[in-house]
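User: I'm curious whether this sequence folds into something compact or stays loose and floppy. Could you predict its structure so I can see for myself?
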Amino acid sequence: MGRESYKGSERALRIWRGMVWSSMLVAGYALAQQAAAPSAGTAAAAAEPPSSPLPQPSRADRVTTWPEPAASAAELMPLVTQSLLLDLTESGNRAIGVGEHGAIVVSEDRSNWRQVADVPTRVTLTAVTSVGSKVWAVGRDGVILASDDAGMHWKSQRRDPWKASPDAASNGGARHGAPLLDVLFLDENRGFAIGAYSLFLETSDGGATWAERQILVNAAPAAATEAAAGDDAKWTFSKEELKIEDESEPHFNAIARTSDGSLLIAGERGSLLRSRDHGANWQRLKLPYDGSMFGVIGFEGQRAVVFGLRGHAFETDDLGDTWRELKTETELSLLGGVKLQGGGVALVGANGLVLVRRSATEPLRAGAIDPAGALAAVLPIEGGAALLVAGENGIARFQPR
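Assistant: Here's the prediction. I'll summarize afterward.
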């Protein structure tokens, strides 16, 4: 996420850089190196004649026997509700949470949780969404899971773990093996999944098939953005602006829909895209702040809120033509959010921070949950009187003041 200051956001980084995508890349590279070369112990053993004539497995055999996390079933964990959970949703009368090691937890009363068995992956799941009884979850290694019964049984729709190959550049480049960071369905058939390196996937058959599309390349600047930029201004999406640690494609962190059917994608270094035609065409927008945005929430009409690095949050009533900054009174990064009744909003972030605005006209009021771990998701319960929050310490109930 660039070279910006992350003061006060170490735990936020653990969720969004360490746990979600950077650790995947580092771990994948380390495993690839380990598979490509024998260890010191193996080399030493090879120097001595074997004590028995038993045949030794080849390097290729050793590699193929390593269980791939993306295709391995999740294990049941006794303390799953106290482990890292990154997103929450509801399907019917059931709440659903997803997190590390392929953990999926469900609850009908929002107090007693149980882990779902036989989840067909053990990679970290980063986001979950639902339409009726149908639920989709996405995560590392390009994994997409689907459930037809409100989260009780799951099947794999897609996985794309990184593999060393001479053809890697022609097979999606950096996006090959990239983690997915958010998912949104317009109905039971049409949906989108987004992720690292501007990865954008879409489906029109409920996820039976997923197609990748490079929307950033063809996204034209919105008229208001172009007028505000002027001849000498730098574009948010210029090649120079997007060159982050030798990567020219910003990570897409979140996608949301407003009530008029428009779509917004928020991402790295102020990256923002919108679509007014259900995702067929996209336009580039410019935020007043060049820092990374980790979330976006759609409201009535063309109203939306985006939020992210160092406590920055912005609100628009015209789908991004104009913006006003929300006063959060914090420099802690904001990682998750949800809309409340009456135009209200709840935002959560680093150090257990919870910001709540009961209506569109009220200011944000700060609270915190203890133990003060980073929070990544929030869900209203009890008619909005209380909140469920999830993050690095699992799931907890929060009562706003």
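Summary: The mean pLDDT is 83. Helices lie at 10-36, 40-47, 59-64, 215-218, 223-229, 239-242.
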